[in-house]
Amino acid sequence: MQLEVSHLNEECGVFGVWGTPDAAFLTYTGLFSLQHRGQEGAGITINNNGQLRTKRDLGLLNDVFNAVELEKLQGQAAIGHVRYSTAGSNLLENIQPLPFNFSDTQFALAHNGNLTNAQTIRQTLESRGAIYQSSSDSENLMHLIRLSKETTLDEQIKDALRQIKGGFAYLLLTKDSLYAALDPNGFRPLVVGKLSNGGFVICSETCALSAVGATFLCDVQPGQLLKIDNNGLVISTYTTDTQLAICSMEFIYFARPDSDIYGVNVHSARKRMGALLAKEHPVKADMVIGVPNSSLSAAVGQQANEQASNDDVQATPTKPEVKSSEAASESVSATSQASSEATPSIDEQQVVVPESDNYVDVMMARETQEANTFMQQTADKVADAYRETLTQNIADVHEDTQAIDELLATDWQTPVKQQVTQRHTKDYGERLDNSLQALESDYQQAVADEEQRHTQTLAKLEQNLTADKAKTTEKLTADRDQIIQHEIAQIITTQTQYIEQEVQQLRYNQAEFKRHKVIDQIVTGQKEANELLTNTYRQLSGGLEVRRQDFIQEHEQALGIRQDSDQAQSEKERLQFANAEVLNLEERHDQLKSVRIDLEGQIGQLQAESSKWQFRAETAQEDLERVKQQLATVNQQYEHRLQSDQVDLAQHQQLAQQARQAKLAKWLHPFKSRQKATEHVSQS
Questions:
Q1: Each residue of 207-219: b (16+ CB within 10 Å) or e?
Q2: Nearest 5 degrees, angle CA 518-CA 521-CA 524?
Q3: Sequence-distant contacts of 428-437: CB under 8 A, at least 24 apart
């Protein structure tokens, strides 16, 4: 089968919780422990008494959520997702959980994995009229669920899961339950845990269970569908054609080292991989470095194997030299005793080796003993370092205390005050003399420059006043236009959001009827908007009629083909299979009858959708009337504000004229004073 998707980066993390009041916080904590599985985007959907609310955005988890956002997400159930794009662009509409709002219910979907037949399903559904909100392959499941002919939601989900192919782990949150599903091969990991208050947790790795304090219950098996509601946990299967084939990259790279996948610890598995690598390709080295971090466990295993080989210790599970369980126990006990003599174990307990010939048990016992020894040595080193640091800090505190006591015991304030006073008095006298000289010089220069500036100032005064008047008028006009444009933009934005919510179902079935066209029609006027809505309704009605005629023609063609086939078969085998042919004709008649019933049902659905479209078109027309009235009110307010601005401008001009006259009188005052003095001298 040809793969229909490209750029497979199948590393996402999902987390779901049911039956706890702090669902949002637990989901955030669980997703934080799964952040290594995806860093492009994050999202959480909360269920608050049957109402679903979603918060999602691009970036890391702590970039999308903060304490204020988490406080707003109140509810008793939630699902979350950290994204590393598998199929679809890195856009906001592809960030999960994907919210779906229908006329009768709400859904939220989170998906880890990749579908191999996603493109085929999408083309088929789009040809039948489905509208996709994103470019992610995860959306296919929801379309298949809504188009299923089964009567219950459980059966609809199973029917949809049987149609998709690939590796996937789904979480589906509804208003009254939480669903989880795993692909028939168990390609992606999914585990179930239980909280101390009775709530349930479903997540990608067991490390998330530990982060929220949940107890591990089980691994979700291939082909299983889990349902969690207020009645508890129900496990069922949607297919029996299953085979466990977990992705090897989970053990090599994706999973966190402290996680367990189907009972196998990831760190231990990577450590054994490193040991096998050292056995198959031995290298004499002084240092082993793991790159990237997921290979550190393998580096530890390789280094341990190399060290064991140098000490002539058998360390490979290919052909162990353990003859019996007693010999294996003696070997491990000797090693444990030697290690305990150097450094005692943390819990000082003997390692018990199972009484079997399984060499893996022997190696696991040895690794446990080595881990205990290493942890005890590390704890001793940390304790010694902390003890030395604490002793040094205490000694420093004693020295500082003695120095402070000696300083407080002496009369240190009086000489310090005298020195400060003397220095301050001397500096102040020098600064005062310098300031007086500078002021005298500045005064003489100012008197000389004043007469020179008088002529230039009087010439520029009129020019500056004219320029100020022009700038003030321009600024007031610009501010007024900016305020008007800003308020118009706010009103249009608010009404656009409201109209988008009202006509969301209409846009779902008619992709070309976008909100930008609706906004343009609102701005240009009610008349064009009414014409557009009327034309759209007529086009939709015509499309429904065409589809209805197509269904009728297909039905008639099917009847004709069935009749021709029945006649040909009857002529060919009428002598030998007469009785069987009668039964076949009856069965084919029943099938055609069921097809006809299905077609009639689809025609009825299309007619119901047409009625919904007509109702929503009338609602949109009423909204347009309301928007027009609001725009008229805003225009009146703007006219009133414009008149106020004109009054303010006249007042500003009057004040500017008064300021100009006052400034001119101020500049002419010295000349008038000199003229009076000259006249007085002349008279004398």
A1: bbbbbbebeeeeb
A2: 150
A3: none
* Burial class of residue 50 in the structure, from the number of CB atoms within 10 Å of its CB (0-12 exposed, 13-18 middle, 19+ buried): exposed
SS3 call for 133? coil
DSSP codes, 295-351: GHHHHHHHHHHHHHHHTT----SSS----SHHHHHHHHHHHHHHHHHHS--SS--PP
Exactly one of 12, 203, 207, 247 is catalytic; name it: 12
Specify the DSSP class assigned to residue 59. S
Neighbouring residues of 181: CB distance < 8 A, sequence distance ≥ 6: 157, 161, 168, 169, 170, 172, 224, 225, 226, 238
Paired with 180 in beta bridges are: 171, 226
Confidence class of residue 356 from pLDDT cuts 50, 70 and 90? Answer: very low
Which among 3, 10, 213 is positioned nearest to 111, based on CA atoms?
A: 10
Three-state DSSP class for residue 49: coil
CB atoms within 10 A of CB 346: 15
Structure tokens at 239: 């297919």
- Angstrom distances, CA of residue 327 to CA of 331, 332, 525: 6, 9, 94
pLDDT, tens digit, 9 for 90 and up, residues 113-148: 889 998 999 988 888 888 888 888 888 999 999 999
Task: Return the pLDDT at 666.
Answer: 78
pLDDT of amino acid 184: 95
Contact in structure between 656 and 469 (CB atoms under 8 Å): yes
Six-digit token string for 313: 């210790």
Active-site annotation holds for 12: yes
Q: Which of 513, 550, 515, 551 is nearest to 534 (CA)?
A: 513
What is this structure's pTM?
A: 0.47
pLDDT tens digit string along 200-211?
Answer: 999 999 999 999
Containing 191, the helix (H) or strand (E) segment is strand 191-194
Beta-bridge partners for 45: 54, 79
